[in-house]
Design brief:
8 helices, Alpha-Beta Plaits, 3 domains, 21% helix, alpha+beta, 6-stranded antiparallel β-sheet
């Protein structure tokens, strides 16, 4: 059988996708608004096979990753996981990831292409450690379930207990006649699940989840659901200039009592000061032209921040994520901008605090 990207791509093209990449989700299946509604209010089914999945093995895997990452890897038992970042010495994010602990290995789930930065970056710190990293893309395909109906779909398809998983918890189940690993991984909401399937059986697993009631959704709907849910993504809100506490990751991706890790001193110093220089916030359009990613925000004529991502909800209302500077980012604060379509206004709805 051909690899998961090709077989899932064939499925996408046969079920309404006008186009599809070689690996990963197509833009949509002809109804982006309906797909977004499913991802926010029902159960959306999305192809995550383009994401990087890296496996860490060897007796020193836990010691190395615990010493390098922002969260507590040492305390993870098999079936548990965490959100974490790998940072520079200056506390800026190199890679944002979800770490899953299996019996004899760790799985590291990253945005597409980030594995190519993360693995060489962390391998620099291996001296005599027994730890090896190997890519699993092309061997294991991620299939996402988005929305409040995710657990019901997973359980109906055979993943008993999926509804009781804690954040980043995971279990082994049989779906579509195939052994899979089901994990509760925040993509756009707390309800989301990811089903990791052998690449050669990805279509069978996908079909079983669709038959259980999930609606296939494209990349556009998933991205909009993420933005509306206030979840930062590497490549948009998280860049090489981002410090984790600025992106709302203080309580999810950082363990404050674990001891030293790369970038800890800077991150802790910023937290001790009580307020980062800028915060990731949710913005609502408040008049004029809609905002666009990359547009500079102003407050009282002064530079206040930047828009990072923009989406429309199923009713057509414009929402965005962006960074706004300290003392200008309180909920209710008004900001202005100039986009290609003309001047516009936006309002800070809330701080992103995951």
């Amino acid at each position: 059988m051909s690899d998961s990207g090709t077989t899932l791509r064939s499925w996408h093209l046969a079920h309404g996708a006008a186009e599809a990449p070689d690996v990963g989700a197509p833009p949509h299946y002809g109804d982006p608004r309906g797909e977004l509604t499913a991802a926010r209010a029902g159960a959306g089914l999305v192809d995550l096979s383009a994401r990087d999945l890296v496996e860490a093995t060897g007796r020193d895997r836990v010691r190395l990753l615990h010493a390098m990452l922002s969260n507590d890897v040492r305390s993870l038992a098999p079936g548990q996981g965490c959100w974490a970042t790998f940072n520079t010495e200056q506390g800026r994010v190199v890679a944002e990831m979800r770490v899953l602990a299996l019996e004899d290995r760790l799985w590291i789930d990253l945005e597409p292409g980030v594995g190519e930065v993360f693995v060489p970056g962390i391998e620099r710190f291996i001296i005599a450690d027994k730890c090896w990293f190997a890519p699993l893309r092309g061997k294991v395909a991620g299939i996402g379930l988005l929305g409040p109906g995710s657990a019901a779909v997973a359980e109906a398809a055979g993943a008993a207990g999926a509804g009781g998983l804690p954040p980043y918890g995971h279990l082994v189940a049989t779906v579509g006649g195939t052994e899979v690993r089901v994990a509760r991984v925040l993509r756009a909401s707390e309800d989301d699940l990811t089903v990791f399937a052998p690449e050669g059986e990805a279509v069978a697993v996908w079909d079983a989840l669709a038959a259980a009631g999930a609606r296939p959704v494209g990349a556009e709907a998933m991205e909009a659901a993420r933005i509306l849910g206030g979840v930062p993504r590497q490549g948009a809100e998280i860049t090489a200039e981002t410090i984790p506490v600025e992106a709302g990751l203080r309580d999810r991706a950082i363990h404050w009592n674990k001891g030293c890790y790369r970038g800890q001193e800077v991150i802790c110093r910023i937290d001790t000061l009580g307020e980062p220089a800028k915060r990731l916030v949710a913005l609502a359009a408040a008049g004029g032209a809609p905002p666009l990613p990359g547009v500079e925000l102003l407050a009282g004529g002064k530079k206040a921040g930047v828009v990072t991502s923009v989406a429309r909800d199923p009713e057509g209302r414009v929402a965005a994520l962006g960074y706004v500077k300290r003392r200008m980012n309180e909920p209710g604060a008004e900001v202005t901008f100039e986009s290609d379509s003309g001047p516009g206004q936006a309002r800070v709805e809330r701080w992103i605090h995951l």
